[in-house]
Amino acid sequence: MQRRLRLLESATATTERPLRVAFASSDRERVDQHFGAARAFTIHGIDRTSHRLLEVIEFAPGGRDGNEGKLGERIVALEGCLAVYCEAIGASAVRQLCAVGVQPFKVPHGTRIRAQIAALQGELRGRPSPWLARALAPLRRGEAEHPRVDQMEVEGWSE
């Protein structure tokens, strides 16, 4: 990784935890990069009604040379994301991403990031696709199973 820009969180009106979704993009507007050779990824926080840019990750130049060594740093950089959108991706990268819980998607060259975000928001407001429903299940279970832990955190700890 050559450079990573992480934007600071600001207080928001929503109580939803945004989903982290990555896009392989050279211009931060369109998906236009092959996963293994991507020079940059933008990571967005997305919920039902809003979205914001969270991070931009840039990598040193490298071609599509079949060297799988460069996949590791890209996969580590996307930790915590639910999905990554790219114009192409190899089978090895797909396996490695799925193993760490990141769902890869191949979309046509030039797909607008804002349009993809809007489509995800539509799924969040309505009926999520099977992959999104699977990805959301642990998050929803965690929220439902631990309300008392959240309350204890608010109350503080004393010994």
According to CATH, the fold-level topology is Nucleotidyltransferase, domain 5
* N-to-C CA distance: 43 Å
Overall pLDDT: 85
Structural class: alpha/beta
pLDDT < 50 runs, ≥5 residues: none
Work out the helix count.
5
CATH class descriptor? Alpha Beta
- Can you write the helix and strand succession as a string? EEEEEHEHEEHHH
Q: Give the full name of the CATH homologous superfamily.
A: Dinitrogenase iron-molybdenum cofactor biosynthesis domain
Name the overall outline: globular
Total E-strand runs? 8
Question: How many distinct folded domains?
Answer: 1
CATH architecture: 2-Layer Sandwich
Biggest sheet strand line-up: 1-5-4-2-6-7
Q: Biggest sheet, in brief?
A: 6 strands, mixed
Radius of gyration of CA atoms, rounded to a whole number = 17 Å
Strand content: 15-25%
The percentage helix is 25-40%
Keywords: Nitrogen fixation
Family: Belongs to the NifX/NifY family.
Domain Dinitrogenase iron-molybdenum cofactor biosynthesis: 28-120
Protein name: Nitrogen fixation protein NifX
